[in-house]
Amino acid sequence: xxxxxxxxxxxxxxxxxxxxxxxxxxxEAALLALDDCGLTIQDMQALYCGNLGQASAMVGQRILQQIxxxxxxxxxxxxxxxxxxxxxxxxxxxVKAGLYDCVLAVGVEQMGKGLLGGAGGxxxxxxxxxxxxxxxPSVFAEAGLEHxxxxxxxxxxxxxxxxxxxxxxxxxxxxxxxxxxxxxxVMNAEMISYPNTKLMCSVNVDGSAAAxxxxxxxxxxxxxxxxxxxxxxxxxxSDPWQERDLVMxxxxxxxxxxxxxxxxMAGLGPDDIDLVELHDCFATAEILHYENLxxxxxxxxxxxxxxxxxxxxxxxxxxxxxxxxxxxxxxGATGIxxxxxxxxxxxxxxxxxxxxxxxxxxxxxxxxGSACGIHILEKV
Amino acid sequence: MSDKPLxxxxxxxxxxxxEPYLEGHKCKSCGAIFLGARQVCSKCGARNQLQAVxxxxxxxxxxxxxxxxxxxxxxxxxISAVVDLDDGATLKGNLIDxxxxxxxxxxxxxxxxxxxxxxxxxxxxxxxxxxxxxxxxS
Lengths: 380, 138
What we know:
- The complex is a heterodimer.
- By secondary structure, chain A is an alpha/beta fold.
- Chain A has helices at residues 22-37, 59-67, 83-96, 136-151, 155-169, 183-188, 216-221, 252-266, 283-292, 301-306, 323-326, 331-346, and strands at 4-11, 47-50, 74-77, 102-109, 191-194, 196-197, 207-215, 229-238, 275-277, 360-367, 371-379.
- Helices cover 35% and strands 18% of the residues of chain A.
- In chain A, the strands form 2 sheets. Chain A has a 9-stranded mixed β-sheet with strand order 3-2-4-7-1-8-11-10-9, sandwiched between helices. Chain A has a two-stranded antiparallel sheet with strand order 5-6.
- The longest helix of chain A has 16 residues, at 22-37.
- The radius of gyration of chain A is 19 Å and the shape is globular.
- Chain B is mostly beta strands.
- Chains A and B meet through helix 4 and strand 5 of A and strand 6, strand 7, strand 8, strand 9 and strand 10 of B.
């Protein structure tokens, strides 16, 4: 099988664009990614489009109606917060399989404000606040406190994740926010679901990101190998059965399963990774994934954040983009925005937030329900 | 309109005589316990091996969150609790009769399943509902 390369990749600055349509927002990133490699929509043999909010509304085709209706196959993908990563992976798989030489993946989302999730539904009466909580901040609070019960992880340690990621975002012009949030500001922010304060919850924003993926032969033929980033691993998992998963969505086991498979596919280990963009939908979640991705041993995540090992300049910088907590989390775009961030570092083009000497990076997303997507990228 | 309260979820059973109880479905092949009836066990894949069982009223607090922001009309703060029942089932519900303060909540604290009115919530037809709650075991 051929190797597949990201030859063009970009994202728009995340924000709130109530006056634009979803296809308009998606089209912007698609054009940016094409411009990044100097190709046109006429060069694309297929489009894989990730969007959640309008999953039944042919967003991919409507993007082509904005930027060029060339008649290529379009696959519209929805997979919760793993939607963008899934679209990227389907694009990658089509090149790996030899179906196409050059394809486009786009992730796009337009979000409302406010709480996501909620317990129950169906017939009868509302269950939220009656049978516990099903809001996302609560679900991830409960997952975080599961780590606390095992290892004594503290509210302060969870809060430090948010301090770090907000700091990183001050160096990222494409992040929604560029605001320092000291520890006391994070801990004293409005409590949403203990231990997640408002500043420990990801930001609901609108956004899009896109990537052009080529086979090795095509990338060479087009003279695009100079800035090309090789996809060393692409993995997608669903949630294996867990004893508590009827009431407690498990983000750990599907991540561990995916990480193991990704390292195997790449022939690499955690020590080979220079930077990670992982799914910090809530500050509590980031702590869990240090261990799930093997960045440290089980029970060491609290120490990792205390010692600054996961900060820019540390041993294994995590979410130098600012993460979902500050860059923002447009659900369908996030997976490809992560690819953009890692690729930008591997290309040495990340400016003030550049991870020095970065050669190999990892992206990770979790869609609750559940889906985990992991990619390992390398600059060759 | 029903003259008796309806169960808040289908796995809460209200017998004509005797106390309400929670019902699980246990796989005879692998022992996994589910809430609600089903044909196939999603742990081991066995078909038609699920047997209704009465769930324990006693358990321990596994994890929780204290909810301060919810949807309009929902009283906060409250404790959303994940409880492991003594027989292996896990349930989520409100933990009542405990102050919503992390200092007052201990992992593995023994809790009891109690039944009561669903916080006054009624459906469109005006039916009342019976819900379950957790409270510290005395």
